[in-house]
Each structure stands twice: as structure tokens, then as C-alpha cells.
Specification:
Layout (H helix, E strand, L loop, with lengths): L9 H17 L5 H13 L3 H4 L12 H11 L13 E5 L2 E4 L4 E2 L2 E7 L2 E5 L4 E2 L3 E9 L2 E6 L4 E9 L2 E4 L11 E9 L2 E6 L3 H15 L2
Parallel strand pairs: 1-4, 2-5, 3-6, 4-7, 5-8, 7-11, 8-12, 9-11, 10-12
């Protein structure tokens, strides 16, 4: 028996609402203006009661094909079995950049000294719901770009150093969590989002719509 929508966690109901809006827009059931208006309302909603009217008049239901395409587009490949290796990114008197479509291992080590390291997860493929990154940085800088909605937990020890998190997505059980730990001295870690979650949803909706054009 399906769970009453009013009894679901709001994060889950919000995601289901956005999925149904996206599917119906992609099939031409609602206009772009209506989709953007309802999407904004879904993202801003603070109660389940506020979410329910947004899809009450929509007949198309999300299916397995839609969810598979969503997983491919957003990169949350949690059924890939995980990667258990622990690769090391070493930067000394230089600059290291990891970006584009790359498979994120379950564990990583970052060693940074008199250098800059950039980890760009915006188009990365997550092979695990929990990613642990152990950081050692001395007189260096580390920039981490993440998709909006990704959870970030920082347990980094700082001496004359700092961690600036401007992109943490909060506690969302449906999205991967990046856990940062380690030690930094005379260094800084900056965590930022390159693309808003709303923008990604709109791009995803256009991709789905094009498939049915």
C-alpha cells in the first residue's frame, strides 16, 4: 500500500514532485513557464501540503526509464559496486586539476604543499554514496567544486588555516556525501557550487523533452 504523501519526508516528496513536473513538461503536458513556476514553488516549499497541488492535475507518472536517464544525467551511479582503491593526488610547487567526467573513488588522498589542487565534481560520476577524502596541505590552497545538493562534511584540523564552505547541500539521504578530514597548515579549503540545482533541473528537463521531440 503506497505511503500517504503527507507522511513522507519532505525531501523525498519534493524530489518526487520535481520528477513528475519534469516528466510532464518533457511530454508537452505543461508549458515552460508553468514548469519553471512550479519548479520554483517546489524548491521553496516548506511543507508537504504545499507540494501536493503542484502535481495534482498531472497524469503522467515517473517510470523506470525516466529514473535511469536521471541517474545517467546527474551522475549518481550508486549501483556500480563502488571503487575501493585509494588513489593519491600529489601537488608540490605546482597545480593539479581534476575535472570533467571522472569516476570518483570511494576513498582519496590529497597531499598539497606550496601548490594548488582543484577537485571539480560538477560532471563527475559518483560510484558510492559516501566519499572520504583525506587531505594534507601545507602552504597551499584546495578548491572543491560540487553539484548543488551534494552533502559535505568537514572534519579537517586547521592551524593558521581555514575551510570556507559555500556549497554544502545539507542532510539529503538521496544524494552522495563527501567527507573531508585530515590536516591543513597555512592553507585554505574552498568549497563552491558551479551550477545551481535549479539550472541543472531545467537542463535535465530539456534533455528529456528533446528525446521525445
Amino acid at each position: 500500500m503506497p505511503v500517504n504523501p503527507l507522511d513522507k519526508p519532505i525531501a523525498k516528496l519534493r524530489e518526487e514532485t520535481i520528477d513528475q513536473l519534469t516528466l510532464n513538461y518533457s511530454h508537452g503536458e505543461i508549458s515552460l513557464e508553468a514548469f519553471e513556476r512550479r519548479l520554483d514553488q517546489a524548491l521553496d516549499a516548506e511543507t508537504n501540503e504545499a507540494l501536493l497541488p503542484l502535481t495534482a492535475d498531472l497524469d503522467l507518472e515517473v517510470d523506470a526509464a525516466f529514473m535511469e536517464e536521471k541517474k545517467r544525467q546527474f551522475g549518481f551511479m550508486t549501483d556500480a559496486g563502488g571503487v575501493t582503491t585509494e588513489p593519491k593526488i600529489l601537488s608540490i610547487f605546482g597545480r593539479t586539476l581534476r575535472q570533467g567526467s571522472w569516476n570518483v573513488p570511494e576513498k582519496m588522498r590529497v597531499v598539497n604543499s606550496f601548490a594548488d589542487t582543484i577537485l571539480d565534481f560538477d560532471e563527475a560520476k559518483f560510484t558510492s554514496m559516501t566519499i572520504r577524502i583525506k587531505i594534507t596541505s601545507v602552504f597551499g590552497g584546495i578548491k572543491i567544486y560540487i553539484p548543488e545538493g551534494i552533502n559535505v562534511v568537514t572534519n579537517v584540523s586547521c592551524i593558521m588555516a581555514g575551510v570556507n564552505d559555500n556549497a554544502s547541500g545539507g542532510d539529503n539521504a538521496n544524494k552522495p556525501t563527501i567527507i573531508l578530514d585530515g590536516f591543513i597548515f597555512c592553507s585554505d579549503i574552498k568549497i563552491k557550487s558551479k551550477k545551481t540545482f535549479r539550472k541543472k533541473l531545467l537542463e535535465f528537463a530539456e534533455t528529456i523533452k528533446a528525446a521525445f521531440a
